[in-house]
């Protein structure tokens, strides 16, 4: 059996890494932050991400991380926007804005077409079948 030991991304403590890159103590602290954020958003549904950070004391970067990871749902909060990782424009979902996601998909489609053209038919590649 392999035990994964890691340093917590937030506090630096050593812990047995199971699923996340923060230790159990920081996970508990983050869960408490989420409760506070949700309470604040219930009272201030039009708040911006900066307002939420200032109103709850939760760091801006932690808020963005929670949204990107899907732990904080913002579909009913139109002003909770954060910068796209590619262009910096405001977005409300994922790591990229809609424009960058579309551009990236087009680029990948082009690269795929080039690879198919270079290597021949896409279904003629080597592969294995197992039962």
From TrEMBL:
It comes from the Bacteria. InterPro entries: Flagellar_operon_YvyF. Keywords: Cell projection, Cilium, Flagellum. This is TIGR03826 family flagellar region protein.
């Amino acid at each position: 059996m392999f035990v994964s030991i890691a340093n917590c991304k937030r506090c630096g403590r050593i812990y047995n890494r199971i699923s996340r890159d923060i230790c159990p103590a920081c996970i508990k602290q983050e869960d408490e932050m989420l409760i506070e954020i949700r309470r604040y958003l219930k009272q201030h549904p039009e708040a911006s991400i900066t307002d939420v950070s200032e109103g709850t004391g939760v760091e801006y970067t932690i808020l963005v991380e929670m949204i990107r990871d899907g732990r904080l749902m913002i579909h009913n909060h139109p002003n909770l926007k954060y910068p796209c990782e590619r262009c910096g424009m405001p977005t409300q979902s994922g790591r990229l804005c809609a424009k960058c996601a579309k551009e990236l998909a087009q680029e990948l489609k082009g690269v795929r077409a080039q690879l198919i053209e270079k290597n021949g038919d896409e279904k003629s590649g080597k592969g294995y079948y197992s039962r």
